[in-house]
Amino acid sequence: MSKTKSAFFCQNCGYESAKWLGKCPSCQQWNTFVEELVQKEKSKGGNDDWKSYNGERKNKTVPLNEIISSEEKRIVTTDGELNRVLGGGIVMGSIVLVAGEPGIGKSTLFLQNGLHMKGISILYVSGEESEQQIKMRADRLKASNEDFYLLTETSTQIIFQEIKKLRPQLIIIDSIQTLHTPFIESSAGSVSQIRETAAELQRFAKETNTPVFLIGHITKDGSIAGPKILEHMVDTVLQFEGDRHYAYRILRTLKNRFGSTAELGIYEMTGSGMRAVSNPSEILITQKEEHLSGTAIAATIEGLRPLLIEIQALVTQSVYGTPQRTTSGMDLRRLQLLLAVLEKRGGFHFGVKDVFLNIAGGLKVEDPAMDLAVLCALLSSYEDVPLPMNICFAGEVGLSGEIRAVNRIEQRIAEAEKMGFEKIILSRYNQKGLSNLKTNIEVVAVGRVEEVYNLLFA
Fold this sequence. Notes:
Shape: globular
Radius of gyration: 26 Å
Distance between the termini: 85 Å
Structural class: alpha/beta
Strand order of the largest sheet: 8-7-9-10-6-11-12-13-14
Largest sheet: 9 strands, mixed
Helix content: 10-25%
Strand content: 25-35%
Number of strands: 23
Mean pLDDT: 86
Low-confidence stretches: none
């Protein structure tokens, strides 16, 4: 019998220790070490014996100058948003980790994409749902694919045996936390199991040039569940985020070895699956007949995509001793900073007011260029004066009350013009690069918070 080995793992970052520690030396968290049984034993046949799978791969030392540069071969899917976040398509031999909250739509999205990708054999491995449950979801999506195969299994040894028989061109694992390898004596979902099963799939992907998608869970604080090394092992990390009470989802790139990390895709959850949103500005701006105060439109950039979003603010008299500050979709500390600027530089008494701020559509935006729109929405609600409907804003607000320049202003102006806006207010420091810009929208430059107030409310 082989000798079992016991080790302690940090459940937060995956740090391994021979003995129990109260504080993790890697992530500085307390009481996160759990003992796990580890038995690293090589199989007789070996799960990584892929020489006959897709040609024999020879590893030898070669000079860098002798390597011929070539573009990565990609599988272009029918989903334009997924192609966008992956950098143009699925790279052959890549391993992609997709994380998100339970029920956000990860399984639906990749089942839908697998059913729509004709002409290539796809293996969908599910460790969480039965065959009947997945069949019911496929019927709801109203899509079929003769080359789409389903396997409900959690043992990597059985999964690799089926892979050798089927020889699929794309593999989807749902989810990595449910898999277990017989060579590690710990429960599925533990740090050592996640690390070992991901390593086996990584070896398979690289040696056979087969792309693999790993669907994963996230923890309560929003980080990807499992050891931090899991994110370093994969080529691409995608975060699927959004509020389950809203219809819109964002697929955001956190890491990509084959493309930009500044991309995102937007989907709408419908009864028949995920619908890619090609023009998100239309759905993020509320169409309303009555013109009310406290609403401003911000020209933002999310990733490489310009978006027009609606900022909603409500300023009321406080009935408690301490005024309330509540935000949805924006950092609360950023709101407090803008309120302090208005209090100090503008003389507005927000210290006795309750302030509520919301970004319509359930999005979370971190672009500092929406500061100016937030500030104007706050002033509009404070004065109870509606802003003109044909105006939008793009500018960062500094602590001294100045309106600072933002990047890629040409794209913001072009998106505002495309959406039918007639005027955009921005920083005067952005005017230098706009001398040769041909546009039909009126560009108004301001330098300080007082100028904005005088322009809109005086």
